[in-house]
Design goal:
By secondary structure, this protein is of the alpha/beta class. It has 22 helices and 28 strands. The protein is globular and about 85 Å long.
């Protein structure tokens, strides 16, 4: 679960190691519920849930959308801690009877809801290992992830099992299929049948510490998706660190937009409200429905991506409404624009806090910063090219900045670190850091590095692949991805530092620095999202102003080329991380389009098909056509390929068209004309 968050901020400074505590500006509420154990007192996440259920069985655990009310709005259903724990034990017993036991790697695919949480905690209880892949990454990447794991059990709805059956080679090791709902043409079990298994319930497995808890995959937005191993110790450490950084208590009611945070709510003993949205379309969530859920249940905390928070803040500002109960908002996944932070401050209570967090699937969280510090201090630095201040390391996490190394780093020597203000690669160490990737020694060699210490155990540091620096106050500043830096002749340009300068312009929605050409001699180009129409005098005036801005600041000096882009390609999970690699390919085509290519030659085939189709129709309309069965068959085959087959490809072509700077209508028209020979070349 990646929460890589960056923002906008100041100056230039960095140090060696740092272990700082991030403190909330809001005092934690005084607990009123019966006493329940904290993560410190438990051996596993399943242990936390069981103890919470024993302490307050009638307290709401999960509130979730469940159909529609007569007026059309969402209807909600409530599940208590006692009910949830009973379901967990019931499911765990059935799964154990089916053969899912300690160490069984189990693909878990279920829609967000109480059943997902019950299945996850049932697997935790058994010591089985859930394998979680974000379906939003696309079928091809998802199948690659599952192929790398080789799971022995598969739990999912009928559609997921259909993918499993069709991808027989990918899931060749699956021996225990469990269907959520009705089983179709495949064997195995149904969850409903397993829940009725008789006999005394299976006791919880003795697991904890460094035992494997689950395998979660990175988004693959900047490279192949990697399976991250989570241990029980790591998961409990994550819970403790978020609790300390954001003042979480069991008295909170949390609106959840990512299921992982719902699991943490159940560990804390708080109430989780599942937001009424589609997990793969978070940024398109209806803000009116979110406000309704926040107000209806008196939500006190909320985690969301910047894209969702932008829509929520705009909606509340337009209506002139506020959210007095909401005391803490946490944003992650991508940079939070200062304008969004400022807008949120106007609709929240004065004592409420807005935290921007930085982390990754391999370690969550790393740092956190509160909105007051962003707006009062660091945002001004971002506009000068300082990068994005992402705050101080959370308790228990150490951060170090070292010189950039593109390949593997065999060993880290004690004390290796850059001085304050020097940009380098960000390394992280602590209990919340994943110790390794699953069955991926090559990825371990690239992203993990050992540091030997005389007289003490060696430390394993995680290389984030991010650039940044520590200032003289222990704050970490984010400057961009290592792989996305533009390596121009004579210097490296850092994406986030440069973009902060241009994003400060009121007409720029966001910008993206990309490089064209070989490393060491790349041509820097800035892609710009703006409401200003491309090609007109207003655009030319904006470009002149952006060039003037670039000349005023060291990190951007010399940047001259700006390209208008209608809508940046972004990640599916958070709808906010910019696909700079795709933008670089688009910019290269815009600036130096090839005069002739094999891809363009292939487009002659569908053009010939259209010519035959239209020519045949015209001939039949104005003259007598000879009755030749073969020609008639070819004409109808051509009609089928040119019309319904091309039309069926439009949904696949639209994302690639957006990434290439094409509007929806243009993409649809060109796909109808050329089919896959056009959009697959984007």
């Amino acid at each position: 679960m990646s929460t890589n968050t960056n923002t906008n901020t100041s100056t230039t400074t960095s140090t060696t190691t740092s272990t700082t505590t991030s403190t909330s500006t809001v005092p934690a509420p005084v607990p009123t519920s019966p006493a329940a154990p904290t993560a410190d007192a438990a051996r596993s996440l399943a242990d936390c849930l069981a103890r919470n259920a024993a302490a307050f069985p009638h307290k709401p655990a999960v509130i979730h959308p469940d159909g529609r009310e007569p007026g059309g709005g969402p209807r909600y259903r409530e599940v208590t801690y006692g009910e949830l724990q009973d379901t967990v034990e019931e499911i765990a017993h059935g799964l154990a009877r089916a053969g899912i036991t300690r160490g069984t790697k189990t693909v878990l695919m279920a829609p967000p809801g109480p059943e997902l949480f019950a299945l996850a905690f049932a697997l935790f209880r058994l010591g089985a290992v859930p394998v979680v892949v974000d379906p939003g990454m696309g079928v091809r990447r998802m199948l690659h992830c599952h192929r790398a794991v080789g799971a022995e059990a598969f739990i999912g709805p009928p559609l997921a099992h259909l993918v499993r059956v069709l991808g027989r080679r990918t899931f060749s090791r699956v021996r225990i299929p469990v269907t959520l709902g009705r089983r179709r043409l495949w064997g195995g079990h149904t969850l409903a049948a397993l829940r009725t298994a008789g006999g005394p319930r299976t006791p919880a497995a003795e697991v904890g510490g460094d035992d494997l808890l689950m395998i979660g995959f990175t988004t693959g937005s900047t490279g192949p998706a990697k399976g991250v191993e989570y241990t029980h110790r790591m998961a409990l450490s994550i819970a403790r660190q978020i609790e300390a950084a954001h003042g979480r208590t069991r008295d909170d009611t949390s609106l959840v937009t990512l299921p992982f945070y719902g699991i943490l709510d159940l560990v804390y003993g708080s109430t989780t409200v599942l937001a009424p949205l589609a997990p793969a379309k978070v940024a398109r969530a209806d803000p009116a429905l979110l406000v309704d859920a926040l107000e209806r249940f008196g939500a006190t905390t909320m985690f969301a991506s910047p894209a969702l928070l932008r829509n929520l803040a705009d909606h509340l500002t337009t209506l002139g409404r506020s959210l007095p109960d909401l005391r803490c908002i946490v944003s992650g996944g991508a940079p939070v624009p200062d304008s969004v932070v400022s807008a949120l401050r106007t609709v929240l209570d004065g004592k409420a806090s807005v935290h921007a967090t930085y982390g990754a699937t391999e370690v969550l969280p790393i740092t956190s910063i509160e909105s007051e510090e962003i707006l009062a201090e660091t945002s001004a630095g971002s506009a000068r090219g300082a990068g994005t201040c992402i705050g101080r390391p959370v308790p228990g996490t150490r951060v170090r900045v070292i010189p950039v190394t593109d390949g593997p780093l065999p060993r880290l020597h004690a004390g290796t670190a850059l001085p304050a203000g020097s940009v380098g690669e960000i390394l992280v160490e602590g209990e919340s850091v994943s110790p390794r990737y699953h069955r991926a020694p090559h990825s371990d060699a690239l992203h993990k590095v050992r540091e030997s210490r005389p007289g003490a155990a060696a430390l394993t540091w995680h290389r984030t692949g991010d650039l940044g620096y520590l200032d003289d106050r222990g704050r970490l500043w984010f400057c961009g991805r290592t792989s996305q830096r533009v390596r121009a002749a004579g210097r490296d340009l850092h994406t986030v530092r440069c973009e902060g300068v241009f994003n400060a312009h009121p007409l720029v929605r966001r910008s993206a620095l990309v490089g064209i050409g070989p490393a060491g001699a790349q041509r820097p180009v800035v892609c710009v999202e703006t409401t200003v129409p491309a090609g007109g005098p207003a655009w030319r005036e904006l470009v002149a102003e952006l060039r003037a801005l670039a000349a005023e600041h060291g990190p951007t000096r010399g940047l001259e080329e700006f390209l208008h882009h209608p809508a940046f390609p972004v990640d599916v999970r958070h709808n906010a991380k910019i696909g700079r690699e795709q933008l670089a390919r688009w910019a290269e085509r815009r600036l130096a389009p090839p005069p002739f290519s094999r891809a363009r030659a292939a487009r002659l085939v569908p053009l010939a098909g259209w010519a035959y189709l239209l020519g045949g129709a015209l001939w039949a309309a104005v003259a007598d056509v000879p009755d030749v069965p073969l020609l008639r068959l070819l004409w109808w085959a051509d009609a089928f390929l040119s019309i319904p087959v091309h039309a069926a490809q439009i949904p696949l072509a639209l994302p690639r068209g957006r990434a290439a700077g094409r509007g929806g209508a243009a993409t649809a028209a060109l796909t109808m004309l050329y089919g896959a020979t056009w959009w697959r070349a984007l």
